Amino acid sequence: MKKITWTLLVMLSSFYGSGQNQQINDNGGLGKGAHDVFLFGQNQQIIDSLKQELRTAKTGPTQASITNQIALIYRLQNPDSGIYYATQGLKLARKYRSAEEEGASFYTLGFTYTLTGNFPQAIEMLLKAKGIAEKNGFTGRLESIYTNFGSVYLGLKDYPKALYYLKKAFKFNPNGVGPNTIMTRIYTETHQFDLANQCAKIAFNNLTQTPRDLITHYRLLRIFGRLLTAERKFSPALDSLKKSYHLAFGNNDISLSGRAMLDVANVFKTQHQADSAQYYAIQSLLLAQKGRYYQDVIDAGQFLSTWYEPLEPQKALYYSQIASAAKDSLLNANNRTSIQNLFNFDTQERQYEIKQATTAYQNKVKVYALIIGLAVMLLIGLILLRTYRKESSAKMLLQKKNEAIEATLSTLKSTQTQLIQSEKLASLGELTAGIAHEIQNPLNFVNNFAEVSAEMLGEMEEELEKGDTQEAKAIAADLKTNLEKINHHGQRASSIVKGMLEHSRASTGVKELTDLNALADEYLRLAYHGLRAKDNNFNATLETHFDPNLPLVSVIPQDIGRVLLNLINNAFYAVQQRTVETLHATSLQHPPYQPTVTVSTQKTDNHIIIKVQDNGNGIPEAIREKIFQPFFTTKPTGQGTGLGLSLAYDIVTKGHAGAFEVVSIENEGAEFIIRLPLRSSS
Fold first, then answer.
1. I need a surface site. Which of 152, 213, 284, 405 has the fewest CB within 10 A?
2. Which of 490, 504, 568 is closest to 530 using CA atoms?
3. Same structural domain for residues 336 and 447?
4. Pair 587, 451 in one domain
5. Mean pLDDT of the chain
6. Burial of residue 644 (number of CB atoms within 10 Å: 0-12, 13-18, 19+)
7. CB 656 within 8 Å of CB 676
8. Across 430-536, where does the E strand assignment appear?
């Protein structure tokens, strides 16, 4: 073990004066009449002075404070008196609602119960003190409370729990004298002597000349005595222990004085000095019995019982009975009575507070009843007036809002109608361009054959004038063939015009048996030629995969035509955009980009499936869920209304009970899939 123990002992021995050594006789024992000194010494004078102050105190909190001070002094020399005055201080603190003194009373009770060995009651009191300190922000007291928790669990030999609370105390003051002193005791009892010396050094370095640290001083002397005993340095150990009980006795700390004497008895027992060991053990027992410190009585009684067992069995039994009686005292009616009195006091105090509160409440009701009544009536009048004004204002505001909503709704309906019509006109314009291209071919044939026929008529007249009837008949046969071709191409133009009219007229809502292959093929060509009419440089590959076994389906042809036209136009727009983007990079591509639009049909067991696919840039995933929303478009301003896919979705899902979905991969293309149920077909 380190030499620090002896060094600290020497320093501690000179920390306070030794003027009271005259109370110790030459043998180190108590002098004649010394047992009565603590009743009439310096502390008793302080108690008498405090009692005089208590009688003249003018305020309740002051009375509680003085009572608690008396309890603090008594706790070391007469625990029963300490508990009595602490309970009285608690009563006064609660009566006058002094949280500070209430916490102090609980703390003193906890400290005193710890000294008597009543650890369960000590824990209960300390918990109450802790609760009051935390609730009211008395953080300065928490260090002492946690230190006393450590002392309680040290007495219970629950070292981990003791260390747990002492660490909490160190958070408030890492160099606290009290926590380090308890830590020194723990490490001594667990034979961790190096750690014990470290904590003792910290405690010593922070000692002051205050009465509180005087108590810590002689407690440290006792601890050093025990440490030196463990080192088998019996002479300095006895010196330290005797100084400890001398200072403790002079300060009327009967409990610590008795414990130090029992430690002295242990030293003499180790040295086989029977008379001295017996003498100090009996002195320790007498002090413990005088102060009614039951745990100290138990320790001294057990020591003497063990000592006399091999020598005088009768005396061993006598001291064993004393220890046993002390154990019973910790659990018997004395403790239960004091606790019950405390609880009775709590009940009476709560009843008193309830009575006081009830009386005050009744007086206030009598005084303020009329004022409250008038205030309520005035408040009701104000509320009614305010309510009436609010209702009138709300009605006017509601009427104005309704008018504004109706005007807005009317405007929205008109705008919606115009936008839908614009969408139809836009698709009609695109279709018209394709139709114009389609009509141009048969018209060219009609014009060409008409001009040739006119020339042939002139030739026929010349041949007839010449009388060459055979040549005239040959020319007439050619004219007949030309007229047939004119008629054929005229019928073709008429059919195209009829289709245009069918598309442009308003939907009747009547379903007709329709060849979807022919409808899809017609709108694919018309849409392509319409785009070519606008942009001669645009080219795309058109692919069709039509199911040859596709039956006629009962649909509204104008509506399905609009759907197909919208999807095909979107597909051409997508491949056209990608064509522009890849125009300058074509030479680097292997193979170069070839815009392609594919239209296909397929019959399944329950549905007719129409697919429009392109190999454009595809639809970004971020906007894929928005494309069927009205007015949503990715085209530049003025090039789209955002209603095409929305109307197409409604036509397929609502008008034909079908399904409409889209599959797209970015930079690879998009595919729109229409599923029409076969139950609509004939």
1. 405
2. 568
3. no
4. no
5. 76
6. buried
7. yes
8. 512-514
